[in-house]
Specification:
It holds the Pfam family DUF8155_C. The chain is mainly beta. It has 1 helix and 27 strands.
């Protein structure tokens, strides 16, 4: 069983990722993070990616972080039988990171507000606010994340070649976004291409693995280095280090986007880069696979 998110749902979100997370729910692309808004002004409203009946809402304690809320929230929605997701009757959507404005018994349509996005302690400091979505089979415990079904994308993302260089267009405290690769056709989902022509997804190398959309199997390369081996679309990263202008950084945040602000995102807490700086990103093998940041 797999659930396909159609273009009519995905086009409501400027950015998305199936793999850019350290949490088990994202293993093998069994969850997706949907970003309702991008840029310095963080989104507050959480539009629903599914239609159905709200079964339950629960609050859960999040890891303590100085920049984050102490609680996160779970929203369970049983999908409508006529859902466009082509899922069996009784399939349940699990959504996180939303302070719910809905309650059990309410009905929601795609695009309805579920509530207010929450920046909880499950987030790394460089991660933007988003709706986390996964699906549970009709006979599965809907409160559990592990064992969720794979998610397929009803869009064909465009793979953008990138040589590792670019100029800083945005500089946050923990990351910079480059102006390359540039989006050639805003409105269509794109991502950084592997040298095989697959769209890369995930935290390279600060999370254990990621994805290569379009892949079936085989080595995955970027910037002249083999970064991992694809098993289906899922990739476990090799032991590599990411450098920006010769300085080791945490990694690359790889995702799919359809907005014209797309560019390579370098995760680099404590950096000294500024808007307008030209940066050269390289990958090097390392005997120390310790995650930075």
């Amino acid at each position: 069983m797999a659930v396909t998110l159609p273009e009519s749902v995905l086009e409501r979100y400027p950015r998305l990722s199936l793999y850019n997370s350290p949490y088990v729910a994202h293993d093998d692309g069994c969850a997706i993070d949907l970003y309702p808004e991008v840029g310095p002004q963080r989104a507050t409203s959480a539009p629903s990616p599914v239609a159905g009946e709200v079964l339950d809402t629960r609050s859960v304690r999040a890891p303590p972080k100085p920049y984050a809320a102490a609680e996160d929230h779970l929203i369970l929605v049983e999908l409508d039988d006529d859902s466009s997701l082509d899922a069996p009757p009784g399939t349940v959507a699990r959504m996180l990171h939303v302070d719910p404005a809905v309650e059990p018994g309410d009905r929601v349509a795609v695009g309805d507000s579920l509530g207010t996005l929450v920046r909880a302690g499950f987030f790394a400091p460089w991660v933007d606010n988003h709706v986390h979505l996964g699906f549970r089979a009709p006979d599965a415990n809907p409160y559990r994340a592990s064992g969720s079904v794979p998610i397929a994308l009803g869009v064909d993302p465009l793979a953008l070649e990138w040589d590792g260089t670019g100029t800083v267009r945005e500089a946050g405290e923990t990351f910079v976004v480059l102006d390359a690769p540039a989006h050639p056709d805003p409105g269509r989902f794109v991502g950084v291409a592997s040298e095989e022509g697959w769209v890369l997804d995930g935290g390279l190398v600060h999370y254990e693995g990621g994805g290569a959309h379009g892949a079936t199997s085989g080595p995955v390369t970027l910037l002249g280095r083999e970064v991992g081996v694809a098993d289906g679309r899922t990739v476990r990263w090799n032991d590599l280090a990411v450098f920006a202008d010769g300085e080791r950084v945490t990694g690359l945040s790889l995702f799919l986007a359809r907005d014209d602000g797309f560019g390579a995102k370098v995760v680099c807490p404590g950096h000294d880069f500024a808007v307008g700086d030209r940066i050269d990103v390289t990958l090097e093998p390392t005997d120390d696979p310790t995650v930075l940041g």
